[in-house]
Specification:
This protein is globular. About 45% of the residues lie in helices and about 20% in strands.
Length: about 525
């Protein structure tokens, strides 16, 4: 990395947004031309913050200053227009059109000015695409690329700018080879970057990590391993502080009880004194008044201390709860199925690999699907779900399968999480639904949002809750469900699938993090 310089100054930045809790205190951030990452639980506002930094969030009210001191390039999760060609996306259409007109005999000076000395541009682009292991046809529409191929093209365009990069979850959909390529490109990128990600491999090569939460923005020097160690120490310290405050509260309750007992004793003594009054009534009344005032001041002091301790404990507990793993209700039993629930013989995909596939899966069997980008993994699941037809071969399905695509389209078009649960489960009582949603970290503010506006991780959590509320556990077709997930949500998904009673097919590029699921079947597409 080159000599460090400031790229962005962010001062007292704070936003307001429907369904999003305010960050307190306001954000102060200084980005430099080095490797930096932004992490946080799903729904805390990471992507929103990145859009604000890039000036792309127009529907948001915020205060503070954002002062860019160097050029930057923003790569969001939102896909570009898929109907445009590769050359159009790369901004080369005008150049290619000029080359075609000149090659056809045209002599317009504006074409020559447009071309300049780039007479080999078409060949150079084809070579560039080939080196990226992408289709070497600039006229190909983006929709012909797989999700991983499209992301690699978008990343290559970003790195070519040689500017500071704002990168939002860019490793999603990339196969293992493309992930290694991305790591190399990031390590070689001299202009620096801010990366929103939960990919441990990418977080292991950064220089510092910022953690965003409703509690504020915290900076951790070093890579993911350093962040994890510091975070664990912080968790231990919070727990120790919480335990200490609990003991203080207990002592104060004992003190308050003692004061009450002393007050009762004094009342009893006052009654005795009154009964055997040898002193003037005025003097006895004055003593009783002074005793009451002294006791009242002491009691108010103890109550104030209790309120202070209670507030501190609530703040600590909030931080501890924020790190707790969300809880799901128990999943129902699997529906019995005689014979294989899925049977495929000589299946040929319309896209991707052309090698015929033959396999069968029982209702409780777990199968992992692997293959490089563009090999047809998502296509296979869509065929099994009945959305598209194979080129040839036999497919038999004995039960309705739940197909969960990369975008969780099943949750589209609902006005909120409560409506989604009502529509996709037998649950109807709103109070019970809201309690269940609170258990997975979706509070009242997030429930007012349409499901399409929930973060990717929140949608996964909501979908897991919906599955847990089914009358029986369906067989699942899971297309890269680990995309967009924070560490907490990923652990939640892994725990859910570990104990899931029915079978599933899982498409993933991150085999290592799923090894504990004990797959008994493998479908490899190459």
């Amino acid at each position: 990395m080159s000599e460090l310089s400031t790229v962005l100054l962010c001062r007292q930045f704070q936003w307001t947004h429907q369904g999003l809790e305010l960050l307190h205190p306001a954000i102060d951030l200084q980005l430099q031309n080095k490797a930096q990452a932004l992490v946080g639980l799903n729904g805390c506002g990471k992507s929103l913050f990145l859009r604000c930094l890039a000036g792309q969030e127009t529907g948001l009210a915020y205060s503070g200053e954002l002062l860019w001191q160097q050029p930057f390039y923003y790569l969001s999760q939102q896909e570009p227009d898929l109907n445009q060609s590769i050359s159009c996306y790369l901004g080369l259409d005008a150049l290619f059109d000029a080359l075609e007109r000149v090659e056809a005999g045209g002599l317009d000076q504006t074409d020559f000015d447009c071309i300049g000395d780039r007479w080999l541009a078409k060949a150079e682009v084809r070579q560039w695409l080939s080196e990226l292991n992408l289709p070497a046809d600039p006229a190909l529409p983006l929709k012909a690329l797989s999700g991983g191929q499209l992301m690699k093209l978008r990343l290559a365009k970003a790195f070519a700018t040689e500017q500071f990069l704002l990168l939002d979850e860019v490793s999603n959909h990339l196969d293992q080879q493309a992930r290694l390529w991305l790591q190399q490109q990031l390590q070689q990128h001299q202009a620096g970057y801010l990366l929103v990600s939960h990919d441990v491999d990418l977080l292991s090569i950064v220089d510092c990590i910022y953690q965003l939460s409703p509690l504020g923005l915290e900076k951790y020097q070093g890579n993911y391993q350093n962040f994890l160690q510091q975070s664990q120490r912080q968790q231990q310290q919070l727990q120790q502080q919480n335990d200490k405050l609990k003991k203080q509260q207990s002592r104060q309750r004992q003190q308050q009880q003692l004061l009450l007992e002393q007050q009762q004793q004094k009342h009893q003594q006052a009654k005795k004194n009154k009964a055997h009054a040898n002193q003037a009534p005025i003097l006895l009344g004055r003593k009783a008044q002074l005793a009451e005032q002294s006791h009242g001041r002491l009691q108010l002091q103890v109550q104030a201390q209790q309120q202070e301790l209670s507030a501190r404990r609530q703040q600590l507990q909030r931080q501890l709860d924020y790190r707790d793993l969300p809880k799901l209700p128990s999943v129902a039993a699997v529906k019995v199925c005689s014979g294989p629930v899925l049977y495929c013989d000589g299946l040929v995909l319309p896209y991707g690999s052309k090698v015929p596939l033959s396999f069968q899966l029982d209702v409780q069997q777990r199968c992992v699907v692997t293959g490089s980008n563009g090999s047809g993994k998502s296509t296979l699941l869509k065929i099994l779900a009945g959305f598209i037809q194979p080129t040839q071969g036999l497919v038999q399905v004995k039960q309705r399968l739940w197909y969960l695509d990369q975008h969780l389209s099943l949750l589209d078009n609902f006005s909120g999480a409560v409506e989604a649960i009502r529509a996709l489960t037998m649950s109807q009582q709103e109070s019970q639904i809201r309690t269940s949603l609170s258990g997975i970290g979706l509070g009242a503010q997030r429930l007012t949002l349409p499901t399409q506006q929930l973060s990717g991780g929140e949608r996964v959590k909501l979908l897991l809750l919906i599955l847990a509320l089914q009358p029986y556990a369906p067989f699942l077709l899971l297309d890269e469900p680990d995309n967009h997930l924070d560490f907490q949500a990923l652990a939640m998904l892994q725990r859910f699938l570990q104990s899931y009673p029915a079978g599933f097919m899982l498409v993933t590029h991150q085999d290592a993090q799923w090894q504990q699921l004990d797959f008994s079947a493998l479908v490899r597409l190459d």
